Amino acid sequence: MTLELAATVTDRDVEVALEVADGETVALLGPNGTGKSTVLAVAAGLLRPDRGRVVLDGEELTGRRLVPPHARRTALLAQDPLLFPHLTALENVAFGPRSAGVRRRAARDRARGWLAEVGADDLAGRRPGRLSGGQAQRVAIARALAADPRLLLLDEPMAALDVAVAPALRQTLKRVLEGRTTLLVTHDVLDALLLADRVVVLDRGRVVEHGPTAEVLARPRSAFAARVAGLNMVRGRWSAGAVRADDGRAVAGSPSGPALREGDAAVAVFRPRAVSVFRHAPGGSPRTALDVVVTDLEPHGDQVRVRAGDLAADVTVHAAAELDLAPGVPVTFAVKATEVDVYAQ
Amino acid sequence: MRPGVPRWVLVPAALGAAFVLLPLVAIIARVPWTDVGTLIGSDASRDALSLSLRTSAASTVLCVVLGVPMAVVLARTSFPGQRVLRSLVLLPLVLPPVVGGLALLYTFGRRGLLGETLEVLGVQVAFSTAAVVMAQTFVALPFLVVSLEGALRTAGERYELVAATLGARPTTVFRRVTLPLVLPGLASGAVLAFARALGEFGATVTFAGSLQGVTRTMPTQIYLLRETDADGAVALSLALVVVAVLVIGVAHRGRPGGAL
Amino acid sequence: MRRAAAGLALALTGALTGAAAGCSAGEDDGTRLRVLAAASLSSTFEELAAEFERTHEGVDVQLSFGGSADLVAQVQEGAPADVLATADTATMDRLVTEGLTDGAPEVFATNVLQLAVPAGNPAGVRGLADLDTGSSTGAGSAAEDVDLVVCAPEVPCGAAAVRLAEVAGVRLSPVSEEQSVTDVLGKVTSGEADAGLVYVTDVRAAGDAVEGIAVPEADQVVNEYPVATLADSDEADLAREFVQLVLGATGREVLDTAGFGAP
Q1: How far is C-alpha A125 from the chain's CA centre?
Q2: C117 shares its domain with C213
Q3: CA-to-CA dists, residue A171 to A76, A138, A175, A185, C99, angstroms
Q4: Which DSSP letter does residue C86 get?
Q5: Do residues C140 and C207 share a domain?
Q6: What ipTM was assigned to the predicted interfaces of this complex?
Q7: Is the domain of C121 the same as that of C75?
Q8: Which end of chain C is more exposed for a tag (fewer CB within 10 A), N or C?
Q9: Is B33-254 a CATH 1.10.3720.10 domain?
Q10: Where is the signal peptide, in residue numbers (chain C) (predicted)?
Q11: Which of B109, B210, B228 sits opposite C190 (nearest CB)?
């Protein structure tokens, strides 16, 4: 069950092409309003693209006649579980099989199986109004799976859940997505890491980066992927042992991967942990020094994350107090060249 | 805790309530209680009440059969001229019923637009109970359509989209998702339509005529009785009020906390 | 409790009529004569009112037309009026017994029923006999196919129709018993009904839309129109003068033209 999707939706300024291999889970990452949900809508048949084609399992879905949603077998699971409020959890899950013509009893048996699969068998008789957010989403997952979809479309399925229930549900998803062709929209690095084989990063309606999840998160080439991966990134051109950005910033580092030539587009990537913060620029050390202004401070584990525009540094609480850090304070971010990974963009 | 309403609002609100309730009190005060049984029990009155209930029920069914699809088309599709069509379809809401009756006459009457066709088919609408049902449906249909279209818009399309992606065909979605979701709206629309049909007078007398047991409904009977027997008219009015209150009461009970 | 309700009612009336008062307050202070008349008298009384205003400088005759029973009920409920003319004596008598008229009413016109058929007479009705559904006569089955509309027995024209059928010895099976003569006429002019029993004055007023077929027996069922000045009139003298106009030669001439008979 492979998906090939190429779509242009003019009024939303989306022009995307992507593929999902059989049994693969692909995460669509990207900032809000960048067209991720539009891509899902095109795949589900809820939106007709101005140009492009959607081919699922060798079947052209966007021929002269658009194949309607109900004939696609592409179950959609959104942030809001959208369980039918007038049906019990069991009836909700049985909805897909019933719609496919399965007899009532058989559909119910199948629904019970799927409820058990997601660990919600005890909720069978409840109405959606009496389910918690996490329970409802479990039932919604069972409902989507019970429809026996060729392609599963997940639109930020955990975004509306409590931090407390998200991990368990993520584990459940990980189990049931195994071997299923899935397109997953998320902005959460954990979802991408745990659930996706590959990620596709969208920005302003275009694919800016794609590749195996671990690789993209370890060596992001787009600002968004770097942010999702929690990494600092400076983009520019490779010159004299440093990546030099258009705004004059230069970050020294050691190239990895294919050799870089002078003037090649490159990114310098480093972890916030590797950044030291000074009130006054240290002289004569082999470090890169970036003069920045603190924009924000936030707790990060047992440390304090100091944000300065698109860069971040992690310091101890003690250091933050000593340096008397506050938004608006000018500081210097310093990073050793050995901590900076440089590669072609 | 509720934020509360400004206190001055209570004065016009009470005035408004009194404006509606006082006439009710006044008519109840005029009811000749000792004779009420005989007055309502007369053949003419019983026929009128039974005819009214039967025709109102029939026109409510007709309103549901025609109005549900109309509301769905208005709420769930878009096509050129839809706004104009909606306004026109809702016209009977503001049209004087007598005008509605005339319009029906010019359409289905013997010399009307479809009259000759109907005549050839051997159907004569005029002076028949069917004409009463048609007149009532004409005036009541917009109530059901408006009420249901509102419910459909409030319910939104999200559930229907999910149902479609789960493999449900449009008919299945309509039957198993759309209809159950808007059932309360449909029920209140049907009650409104029934109540409107029960009270229909102008279009009926203009289009259907007035004959005991065939076309003379309660309102027509009340209006006629007033000529000779004011007490009888009051007693019959009371019966009509009771029926209306019962219908609204039952509809309310069916929807806990729901408002019409 | 009761007083509170009454107080509320008063406040309500005040609030609601306050707005309405604004509309009528601007009237000139000339003399007003308020005349209530049966709907069938509308054209003749408009003519007579104009005549009255011409001969009475500064007098404004306000006409209000309606069903006789409605008009009587309005007077009973205290509507201000000076003269009342009804289409039958029975309704007028209700006011006489309550002492609401100023003296005895006088009959000023008569009216008889006639068969009205749509222009062209599509059903070929020739007389009451064609409408007789009585089983004794051979015409029965044909009469079933003719849609006859009459007034309901509760209203004067319907009561007259019942008596006419008795006098003529026919059994009528109308498809509808309408509220008023206007409704009957409407069903005939629109072609819905093949025939209707209405007053001869209605047939004349309807012009070319209907054809009248005289019913010989109608002369035995004469409808009388009484007129009276009302006890509560503020303009008793003027009211009496208006009644004199109706009863006099001018009135006779106008009524005659419209088809009304002399008392």
Answers
A1: 34
A2: yes
A3: 19, 11, 6, 17, 95
A4: -
A5: yes
A6: 0.80
A7: no
A8: N
A9: yes
A10: 1-20
A11: B109
Task: Determine the distance in angstroms separating the CA of A61 from the nearest CA of chain B, rounded to an integer.
Answer: 14
Q: Where are the alpha helices (DSSP H) in chain C?
A: 2-24, 42-55, 68-76, 89-97, 140-144, 156-168, 181-189, 200-206, 236-247, 249-258
Among C200, C225, C194, C193, which residue's Cα sits nearest to residue C215? Answer: C200
Count structural domains, chain C.
2
Determine phi and psi for A238, rounding to 5 degrees. Answer: -75, 125
- Test the C interface: residue of B10, B227, B231 with most C CBs within 10 Å: B227
CB spacing of A147 vs B181 below 8 angstroms: no
Residue-by-residue pLDDT tens, chain A, 345 positions: 789 998 899 989 999 999 999 999 999 998 888 889 899 999 999 888 999 889 998 888 887 788 999 999 999 998 899 999 999 999 999 999 999 999 999 999 999 999 999 989 899 999 999 999 899 999 999 999 999 999 999 998 888 788 788 888 889 899 999 889 999 998 888 888 889 999 999 988 899 999 999 888 888 888 888 888 888 999 999 988 889 998 888 898 888 878 888 888 999 999 999 999 998 877 666 678 888 999 999 888 888 999 998 899 999 999 888 888 889 999 999 998 888 999 988
Task: Kindly report the pTM of this predicted structure.
Answer: 0.79
Residue C86 is assigned to a structural domain of this protein: yes
Residues of A in Cβ contact (< 8 Å) with B162: 76, 78, 82
Interface test mutation site (partner B, options A37, A56, A70, max chain B beta carbons within 10 A): A70
**Contact call for B210 and C186, based on CB within 8 A:** no
d(CA C89, CA C66): 16
Interchain pair B210, C177: CB under 8 A: yes
Mean pLDDT score of chain C = 85
Give yes or no for A279 touching B (CB within 8 A): no
Of A75, A80, A87, the CB nearest to B165: A75
CA distance B74 to chain A (A): 20
Name the residue among B166, B181, B183 with its Cβ closest to that of A95: B166
* Cα A292-A293-A298 angle, rounded to 5 deg: 110
CB contact under 8 A, A76 and B158: no
Which of B167, B176, B181 comes nearest A147 by C-beta? B167
Query: What DSSP designation does C215 have?
Result: -
Q: Distance, in angstroms, between B91 CA and closest chain C CA? A: 24
Task: Answer whether residue C151 is part of any domain.
Answer: yes
* Contact assessment for residue A15 and residue A8, using Cβ atoms and an 8 Å cutoff: yes
The neighbours of chain C, by the rule of 3 or more Cβ pairs under 8 Å, are B
- A203 near A31, Cβ under 8 Å? yes
| Chains C and A touch, contact meaning at least 3 pairs of CB atoms under 8 angstroms apart | no
Residues in Cβ contact with A103 at an 8 Å cutoff, skipping those fewer than 6 apart: none
Q: Are A19 and A5 in contact (CB under 8 A)?
A: yes
d(CA A112, CA A114): 5
Scanning chain A, the segments in alpha helix (DSSP H) are 36-44, 89-99, 104-117, 133-146, 166-177, 189-195, 213-218, 223-229, 317-322
